[in-house]
Structure formats: C-alpha cells, structure tokens
Amino acid sequence: MSWSAQTKMLKGASGIAAILLLWQLSVYVVDVPPHFYPSPAAVWRAFIEMTEKGILPSYIADSMLRYLLGVLIGTAIGCALALLIASSKLAMRMLGPMIDFLYYMVELAWIPLFVIWFGFGLPTILVAVVYVVIWPVLFNSLSGIRSIQPSLILAARSLGGSRWQVLREVVLPGMLPQAVNGFRVAAGFAFRALIFGELIGAQSGIGYLIFESTTHLQTDRTVLGMICMGLLWLFIDRNYLRPFEKATIDRWGMVVSHDS
Amino acid sequence: MSNIRISGLTVEYGIEGQPRHLALEDVSFEVCSGEFFCVVGASGCGKSTLVSAIAGFVPPKAGRVEVDGEAIRGPGPDRGVVFQEYALLPWRTVIDNVALGLKFRGVGRDERRRQAAEYLKLTGLEQAAEKYPHELSGGMKQRTAVARTLVMSPKVMLMDEPFAAVDAQTRVVLQQELLRICAAQKMTVLFVTHSVEEAVFLGDRVMVLGRPPHQIKDMIAIDIPREERDWGTIATDPRFAVLSGEVMNRVRGN
Amino acid sequence: MTANGIAPSRLARQAASIGLALIVPALVVAAWAAVPFFVKVPAYKLPTVMEIGEQFWVLTSSGKLGWELLVSGSRFIVGLLLGTALALPLGLAIALNRHVSDVVRPALVFFQAIAGIAWVPMAIIWFGFGQGPVIFVIANTVFFSTIYNVVRGVESIPAVLRNAVRSMGGTGIGYFRELILPGALVQIIVGLRTSMAFGLRALVGAEMIAGTSGLGFMTIDASQSYGTDTVIVGMLVIAVVWYVLDRAVFIPLERKTVVRWGLQRFQ
What sign results for the dihedral spanned by CA atoms B69, B75, B77, B80? Predict the structure, then answer.
C-alpha cells in the first residue's frame, strides 16, 4: 500500500473513531434515559449477547436468504421482459407506455396492497423485493439495448447472423454493462425494500430486529440492527456488486453512465 | 462481366411521424467483376444509402439490386460490409471478431481460428490477434473489419467511408494496402467516400453522385495502372491532377 | 407528396400507437375483472374499477384526500429543504478540501448505507409518532443523496477549466462563484431529481410506519381494515403526483439549465 493511501485510510479511520468517541462521551453529558440514546458500549454489549445466543447470526441468515431469493427472481423477470420487449417492436409499442407509467409508481406504495393480498410475512417481503428489482434491471437493460451501435447489429446480420445468433452475439453482451449497472442499483433498492418489508411484517431478520426492539425500548439492539444493515450492505456492495461490474466493463473498455 | 447490377433503384427513408425523404431515385449502374468502383459525392447525396441498399439493410421502394445475376434478399455474407465506425464487437478479441461470420456459418472453433489467423496475416494483424478492439488504433480496427469481411470470401466488398475516422498518415497507408489486398484477392469493391482524392487514387472508375433527380452526374474512368498508384509518386503525376480536377468539378456541380 | 397526403397516415399511425398501448392495460383490467370467476377470492381483495372510482370520489369530495396530500406535501418540502440546507455546506467542504474529504468520507459512506427507512424506529423514540420521524427520515435521506451530488458536481468540473480560471487570476470568492458553483450546479440539479425520488420513498415509507396522517398513513391504515379501494386510490395519487412533479418541474428545469449551457454534464 502506498504512503498516501495509508494516510488516507488512517484519516478515514480517525473520522470514524472520532464519531464513536464523541458518541460515547456525549452519552455522559446529555443525561437522558439510556433507551433514548444508547451508548456505543451498550450497543457492543447487545452485539455480544445476541451473537452468543445465536439470534443475530440467524437473523442475518434469514435476511440474506430473503434478499438473495428476491434479487435472483427479480433479475430473471427483469431481463426476460427486457429481451422480450427488445426483440419485438410490437411488444415495445404495447408495453412501453405501461412500463413508463409503472416507473412512476412508488414501489413502497405497493406494500399495503401486498399486505392485503399476501398477508404479513415472507410472501409480502419477497414480492416487495422482487418488485423493486424488476424495474431498474428492466430500464437499464432496455437502455443498454438501445445504446448498442446500430452498425454492430447490421454488421452481424451482413456476416450471416440469424436473429438468434445476433441476439446472442451482439444484443446480450451489448446490453450487459448497462444491465449490470441496473442490477447494482436494483440490489440497493432491494436491500432497502427488504429492511422495510421486515419492519412491517416479519418475525425475524435485520429489519425485524430494528423495529421490534424499539417496542421493548431495547434501542441498543435497534442501533445494533442499523449498524449491521450498513455493514451488510457495504459488504455486499464491495465484495460482490462492484467487482462484478468492473469485471465486465473494464475488460471491454466500455463506459456506462452512472446515475444513482 | 458485371458483378453488381443496379437498375432503377429508388430508396425512401423515413422516421416515423415525419415526411419521408427520397434518398435514391431511379439509379442504375453496373460494377464489373474485379473492379474497384468508387462512389463520391457531397454529404446527403445518398451514397451511404446506396451501400445500405446493396447490403440489404434497407428494402428498396422500387428497382433491383443483383449480385452475380441474383437479386439480393436482405443482408448476407456474400456481400461484405465495412463501416466507417468499424462496428467491431467490443467483447470479442480481434481474432474472434474476424472469426465471427465463420461462427455464424457453423464452422468449428479450431478451424475458424485457423482461417481467421490467415487473414490476420494478410492484413498485418498477427501481433494483435488476442487484443480487444478498444486496445487498437483506428487503423488497426479498420484492418480487423476488412479481415472480418474477407474471411467470408464475399463476392463483393462494400465500404462506406471506411477511412474517414482515421488520421491522415494512417489513411495513406491503409489506402495502399487496400489496393494490394484487393488485387491479391481479385475482389470486387464498391467504395463510398466524400474525398475526391481518395476516390481517384483507389478507383478504376469513379461515379459522381448528386441529389435526386438525375443523381448519377458522371462516370469517370481512371486510366492509371494499379501498379503506379503510390502516394510517393502519384501526387506529382499530371494524370492524377487532371482526373482529380475533373471529378472535383463534377462534385461541385459544374 | 403533399401535406394532405401525409396527414391522414400520420394520424392513423398515432392512433395505432395509442391503440397498441391501450391493449395491455385493457387486458390487465379484464384479467382483474375475470379473476373472481376462476378463483375464489374474497371481494375485498379485488375491488372493481367502479368501486375504486367511487372511492376516489368519496375521498375527494370529503376533502380527505386533499388534506392528506397537503400534509404529505408540506412534510416533503420541509424535509427536503432541511436536508439540502445541511448537505450543501458539508458537500462543498468535502469537495473542496482533501483533508475534510479523507476524514469524513468513510463515515459518510457508512451512514449512507443505513440512510432512510432504517432510522424510522429510532426517530419514533426521539420524536414520537407523527410528523417528527417522517420529516427526520426525509431530511436524512435527502441529506446523503445531496452530498453525493454536490461532491460529484464539483469533481466533474474538468481540470482544464479550473486551470483556465486560475490562470486568469480567479481565486477565493471569485473562483468559487464563477467556476465551482455554476460548474457543480448542473449535477446538483440533475441529482435533485434523484434526491426527490429517494425523498418521496422515505416520505411514503416513514408515514406508513410512524405516521398518523398523510398519504402513506392513509394507505397502510386502510389496509388494516381491508380497504383495498382506498389503498389503490392512494397508490395512484402518489404516482400521479410524482409524474406531475417530474414532468412539470424536473424535466423542464433540467432542460433549462443543462441544455441552455449546451452541456449534458461534463464528460
């Protein structure tokens, strides 16, 4: 690691340490009930306790399972829709306006309807996650397909490529960088939808932990849940989403505009 | 013997909701087998549309396009197309780009890479075989595109301003190499450009295209033997100067 | 070809487009109406289109819908202003000073990862149910989104321009006013749309959990008593509000600044 990168990391660590320190010190100063303003020490004790009892690991496992399942199903549906729409002008004209309209439907607003249809529980959470994944994947895949140079498709056709061959050799790889970008946005939305779904209707999971513990005024656990949420997301993003994006885009020398 | 025969070709262009635009109207000409045929004209005269129509990308409103006596039906590997913007697949290496058409044809991996490698040698790209297009210069990209069409042994090669995007020094080299390769392959070429000098340097014949109606303004034979086409000497050749002047005049509409 | 010859065909094409676009919604409505004939579903789960329309009328004429809209809207504006006002100075400080950036960024990245809905329970402890937590969560969401935009906006100013302004003697306030602010403005405006989108989601989500009024509360409250028609009216109203905001405010705003300066964002 270079010298400047090292100092940069040290500075960053000092920023986080300062926040922790100020937080802990301010607890002594402000004199409010502990549940109103849990200290870092209390959060740490909650972490140890919940880990020893095995609650925290099982909550994290539950959340991750729901998350993975939802993201996979949503991505599959989004990609399939994008290909269907891209492969046919008729489908585009039939579905385009409908999709434009659905873009303006705020995903969270569906939750009460999902609750009525599927009850409080896993189906609602899963549907919510799947739903928020579909749209970014679909939009970005479609814009990826539209961004393919027309001459690439013409060239492939003039080299004798059939419809299917052009789809496989040109359209699919051509839309991939944007689709991956959309996937990353979707993965972020999905994570929030998961937490929100778990806040509203779950018996386990990180979102459940955050919400449920406040009703017992165990806010040290609430804060623990929030920190777990942040760390989990950073872990997913840094270890899986970014490398995945880099792998496709850098190698092909393609640039994607980031809008998120 | 004629290789490409265009008769009464009329092509309309239109974006949905806008009045349609007549790009080609009743155009007829023939290109002989083995001929290097240049089309020159100002922008908007429909010369790119001509390539698209022969390639089969746009259906004509009227008229016929025949290659080797057969009317064309849509795009096909019998007509190799070289685009100004290279149109290489960014996710394939040079050799895989060149082998793409063979893959479409169902040729096995080893065989198509062997054939592609042959054409890489012909176009001077052996060293770049495993590179991705974004790692290449413009000139090398266009060499790749030429190799990609030649490997399919097309009946004709259609080139739409292929050197417009490369720098001047590279362009000169590419022009000379193109002549060498086409002579070696006895390739029939229809080459579209807006550069009069390029057309006169490359072409056995130069067709001057204008806007409809009466689009074919002139057809000028370039009687300079191919062996003498060398930028080192031709610039001072009086025949080159005279022919260039003549074509230039016709392009300007005199 | 004459203009008369073109007009009917263009009309016909437009009519065809509209017709095609209506097929899918018509199918959805038809399927909606047909479901009860094939599967046994309780009527409350699938109100008819008529019932939804009636409910819309009831909610509108009683003034309830207008009131909830007003409540949600005012919270949204307050939260948005609060979040933006706090984010601008910090964002500029991060963008302009390397040391601030180095120290603050990692913490910021972490807080950004938990921004939004996850704060609702804690905000309820602090402010009680009602509009406190809602405004807090909107401001929180907008804050992180805006910081990101400001930093990105300043960073997107090309080095050539910075050097040009400096070489003409632009320093201090002048440098800031002539280059940094206008240069970052485009990204800030473009990013405002994203911030608003996140803010709107925070609004709806927070109202559902912590609210005692507002559109989000209205829908979740209705869902407790199986008022599916109200839920759907609420969803559609939120969508229409967002659509109008986007079309009437953001797209024109973006066009005015971005297009007038001839930049699509610095590349």
Answer: positive
What is the domain count for chain B? 1
A233 contacts on C by Cβ (under 8 Å): 113-114
The verdict on residue C124 lying in a domain is yes
- Secondary structure (3-state) at C97: coil
Q: Which domain holds residue C242?
A: 49-260
Contact of B223 with chain C, judged by CB distance below 8 Å, is answered with: no
Task: Tell the burial category of B43 from Cβ atoms under 10 Å away from its Cβ (0-12, 13-18, 19+).
Answer: exposed
Q: Within a domain: residue C199? A: yes
Is A42 part of a structural domain of the chain?
Answer: no
Helix ranges (DSSP H) in chain B: 47-55, 94-98, 100-105, 109-122, 138-150, 168-185, 196-202, 231-234, 238-252
Same domain, C9 and C126: no
R_g of chain A computed on alpha carbons: 23
**Within-domain flag for B120:** yes
Helical spans, DSSP H, in A54-205: 55-87, 89-103, 111-118, 122-146, 150-158, 163-166, 172-200
* Residue C95 predicted with pLDDT over 60: yes
A78 located within any domain: yes
Integer CA distances (angstroms), C103 to A16, C83, C97, in order: 8, 21, 10
C1 has a chain B CB within 8 A of its CB: yes
Residues C36 and C55 in one domain: no
Same domain, C15 and C62: no
Could you tell me if residue A1 is inside a domain?
A: no
Q: Which residues of C touch A220 (CB under 8 A)?
A: none
In a mutational test of the C interface, the residue from B12, B16, B21 whose CB has the highest number of chain C CBs within 10 Å is B16
Give whichever of B188-197, B216-225, C169-178 has the largest mean pLDDT: B188-197
Adjacency order of strands within the sheet including B62-67: B21-32, B2-13, B62-67, B70-71
Mutate to test the interface with C, among A63, A108, A191 (most CBs of C within 10 A): A108
Per-residue pLDDT of chain A (260 residues; tens, 9 = 90+): 577 788 888 888 888 888 889 888 888 888 788 888 898 989 999 999 999 999 999 999 999 999 999 999 999 999 888 888 877 777 777 887 787 778 788 888 888 888 888 888 888 899 999 999 998 899 888 888 888 888 999 999 999 998 889 988 998 888 888 888 888 888 988 998 899 989 887 889 999 999 889 888 899 999 999 999 999 998 988 888 888 777 766 666 665 444 33
Give, in order, the Cα–Cα distances in Å from A78 to each of A103, A133, B16, B105, B191. Answer: 13, 7, 28, 32, 43
Select the residue of A156, A160, A173 nearest B105 (Cβ to Cβ).
A160
User: Residue range B106-112: average pLDDT?
Assistant: 92
Print the domain residue range for B126: 87-153
Chains that touch B (3 or more CB pairs under 8 A): A, C
Q: Does B19 touch chain C (CB under 8 A)?
A: yes
Query: Is C37 in the same domain as C13?
Result: yes
Minimal CA separation from A3 to chain C, in Å: 14
Q: Is residue A234 part of a domain?
A: yes
Enumerate helices (H) and strands (E) in chain B, giving the number of each.
Answer: 9, 10
Asked whether residue C10 falls in the same domain as residue C137, the answer is: no
Question: Minimal Cα distance from C10: which residue of B?
Answer: B17
Task: Kindly state whether residues C117 and C237 are assigned to the same domain.
Answer: yes
Same domain, C36 and C140: no
Residue among B16, B19, B20 minimizing CB distance to C13? B16
Do C126 and C253 reside in the same domain of the chain?
A: yes
Report the domain count for chain A: 1
CB nearest to A160's CB, from B76, B132, B135: B76
Residue-wise pLDDT tens digits, B129-181 = 999 998 899 899 999 999 999 999 999 999 999 998 888 889 999 999 999 99
3-state secondary structure of B164: coil
Task: For residue C135, tell me if it sits in a domain.
Answer: yes
Smallest Cα distance from C4 to chain B, Å: 11
The minimal CB distance from C231 to the residues A113, A214, A230 is found for: A113
